[in-house]
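Problem 12. The chain below contains 122 residues. Write out its predicted structure in token notation.
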Amino acid sequence: MFEDLSMHRMVSKPKAKQDGSGNYLPNGAAAKGGLNKSILDAGWGAFIELVKHKAECAGVTVYEVDPHKTSQICSACGEEGEHKDLSVRTHECRHCGVVLDRDHNAALVRRFGARKISPAGR
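Solution.
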């Protein structure tokens, strides 16, 4: 299972913006260029294609899942929490108290689907 990431959007150039007098504003293009090179050097797209090919040969299905809100939803209770910066590596649910590694929680959300369970268990 992989996140369905848009490599094309991840490595696109930042748009140039002008202020009211027609001067161009700083847009971080130099820093973005370095990030783009790192993303392309890592070869994630090629790696995913290789895994898909190997999985097909082995008769296994590879899924690409939407990463939207997987870091906010709790895999234990299904409640949505607050947005986390990428520097926050732990998922701590304020609703049920579960504490998991952020990536582990996201994988469980995608693998099993988080669903809300009523207090009566129905």
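Discussion. The chain has four helices and four strands. Students who got a different answer should revisit the alignment rule from Section 12.3.
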